[in-house]
Amino acid sequence: MAPIEAQSETRPEPPAQRFGSNAIAGAGIGLRSRHYEDILTTAPEIPWFEALTENYLGGGSPLANLQSIRERYPLTLHGVGMSIGSSDALNEMYLTKLKALVQRIEPAWVSDHLAWISAEHRYVHDLLPLPYTEESLQHVAERIRRAQDFLGRRLLIENPSSYLSFRHDEITEWEFLGALTDIADCELLFDVNNAYVCATNRGIDPLHYIDSLPADRVREIHLAGYEEHHGYLFDTHGYRVQPPVWALFRAAVKKFGPVPTLIEWDTDIPGLDVLLGEAGKAQAVLDAVA
Amino acid sequence: MISLAELQALFREAVFETGAQQPATRALSRHVNATAGLSSMQHLQIYQRAVMSTLERALEQIYPVCLQLVGDEFFGGMARIFARRYPSRSPDLADYGAEFAEFISAFKPAEDLPYLADVARLEWAWHGAFNAPDEPPMDPAALTAVPAEDIRRIVFRLPASASLLQSRYPVERIWQVNQPDWIGAQHVDLGSGGLNMLVWRKDHVMRIDVIDDAAWALLNLIERGATMAELTEIAELDQLLPGCVQNGWIGGFRVIHGE
Q1: Contact (CB<8Å) A87/B5
Q2: Could you give the percent of chain A with pLDDT greater than 70?
Q3: Looking at the structure, do residues B204 and B238 belong to the same domain, yes or no?
Q4: What is the tens place of the pLDDT at every residue in B21-54?
Q5: I need a surface site. Which of A18, A230, B166, B172 has the fewest CB within 10 A?
Q6: CB contact, 8 Å: A139 with chain B?
Q7: A108 lies in a domain?
Q8: Which of B31, B92, B134 is the closest to A168 by Cβ?
């Protein structure tokens, strides 16, 4: 693999802060274009928003809205395009655009998924699963390190939803994630819904997942709603958070502490009030433990 | 053991297959665990459906008027054939679907709708303008600063958001009457003739400007990188050019040296 840029030993200096603090705490919600106007006119009481990276790699009104919201709230950036698990070379153009966006809006965190979306430079635009082998571990860790060097900051890597496992898996997903944080020096975004979906689809106790992750690496938590299909759970992000996911969230907060938590809702997006209500419930769980 | 690169190449092929009996799906399923509820093939089919549905939804969002014109079922069929024929080359889903108009124009089942490909071209131009980088409008005063001997070396350019389009059909009207906020008759007389358009964004306002043949000819030359010396062959340039600048149809200019 060719280096994506001349590697330097020291990470670049962070740019001067133009916004207020970018630190996040408490329960935030995913930022969706249909809510821009509501947010900017009603200024809801919510501690932070998470923006989908790929919606802001261009310019125009999406980016202008994001900047206006960033002037009032801390933000995180959450992407699906890094393809960090792919065998292709890291996509320089994508990382360059991402870096420009990061400098522009100064997010608290930048995250993407433990998954891949491309092979032979053709993109499927869906998060596909990795085999959990030593080969994958070294490969993904190396790419995370190089992406982090390029961006000049640590990434959060999210546990994916997956609907299959490979026969040649050598370790579990949580062992893989734990080892990854050590080797790549990255942080974790723990998606409770994804962990529940994966565990249920594979017949595993989801509490094992929580117990085995390195607590000091978990910087953010995601909550979302799944859908029940015949024989498996599917992660649609199109529903309220389901009761078993709330229960698992409480266990996660006990283990990891009151980590900043996000309500994700990507399809059939309801009004802002519904999302704020869900965030309120998450906040109550965080407060009970804090 | 299959290598990561081989596994991913096989997986990418498999998600574009349908059903269980296709070669990549069969080969890949040998590496996938079955569970109590699902066979290894069924696990892969979850991904086949998810990938196709993501790509279909992406095209629906970029091409809402085409979707409206042909209906869900026909559009879905086109989207699935398109997805198999035109692999995405970018991690950004907003780049997906650039070739959809070209695909439609050669798509036999759509030949009864000869204007459909041009509507798709218009929607792609709209999508591109919406996501284009921001840029300040050209400052006409900067032109007066160009020394007289360099004027013939000026090369204008269109705004970064702009696409020039031409159609034999009234696609701008077709587009308008299929907007969600359109009130009034939806009838379009297909015989009412074609038009030239510039699709672009003025600050954050989206524009579809219908332009006359003279402006079209000028903007076309500009798009091809013509110098001012070449533009002078156009009739009434001294009125046409300032008009185009004033409308915002010209994004900037540079002076080329060293001929």
Answers
A1: yes
A2: 94
A3: yes
A4: 799 999 999 999 998 889 999 999 999 999 999 9
A5: A230
A6: yes
A7: yes
A8: B31
Determine, yes or no, domain membership for B107: no
Question: Among A57, A82, A119, whose Cβ lies nearest the Cβ of B9?
Answer: A119
Distance CA A175, CA A218 (A): 14
Alpha-carbon gap, residue B217 to A102, rounded angstroms: 41
Q: What is the ipTM of this complex?
A: 0.90
What are the structure tokens assigned to A89, written together?
């070379």
Q: How far is B12 from chain A (nearest CA, A)?
A: 6
Angle separating helix axes B40-62 and B116-131, nearest 10 degrees: 90
Do B92 and A81 make contact, defined as CB atoms within 8 angstroms?
yes
Claim to verify: residue B152 and residue B75 sit in the same structural domain: no
User: What amino acid is encoded at A82 in this protein?
Assistant: M
Helices (H), chain A: 36-42, 60-70, 92-105, 134-151, 173-184, 192-202, 206-212, 243-256, 272-289
Q: Tell whether A1 is covered by a domain.
A: no
Count of domains forming chain B:
2
Are B131 and A60 inside 8 Å of each other by CB? yes
Question: Are B33 and A166 within 8 A, CB to CB?
Answer: yes
Q: How far apart are the CA of A134 and the nearest CA of chain B, in angstroms?
A: 11
Residue A212's domain spans which residues? 27-289
Tokens linked to A143: 């790419």
* B25 exposure class (CB count in 10 Å sphere: 0-12, 13-18, 19+): buried
The answer on B118 and B94 residing in a single domain is no
Percentage, residues of chain B above pLDDT 70: 99
Could you tell me if A152 lies within 8 Å of chain B, comparing CB atoms?
no
B249 and B183 housed in the same domain: yes
Q: Are B254 and B131 members of one domain?
A: yes
Cα A107 to Cα A151: distance, rounded to the nearest angstrom: 12
On whether residue B105 sits in a domain, the answer given is no
**Residue B225 domain flag:** yes
The answer to whether residues B94 and B199 belong to one domain is no
Preferred mutation among A63, A123, A136 to probe B, highest tally of B CBs within 10 A: A123
Q: Are residues B31 and B142 in the same domain?
A: no
Interface of A with B in 175-234 (CB under 8 A): 201-203, 229-232, 234
Dig out the tokens for B131 from the structure.
């996501």
Question: Quick one: B82 and B146 in the same domain?
Answer: no
CB-based contact B43 A120, cutoff 8 Å: no
B156: CB partners within 8 A, 6+ apart: B222, B228, B231, B250, B252, B253
Task: Using alpha carbons, list the distances in angstroms from residue B86 to A194, A261, B55, B98.
Answer: 31, 38, 11, 9
Tell me: pLDDT of B244 over 50. yes
* Domain with B33 in it: 1-99
* CATH code: domain of residue A187: 3.20.20.150
A120: Cα separation from own chain's centroid: 25
pTM across the whole model: 0.90
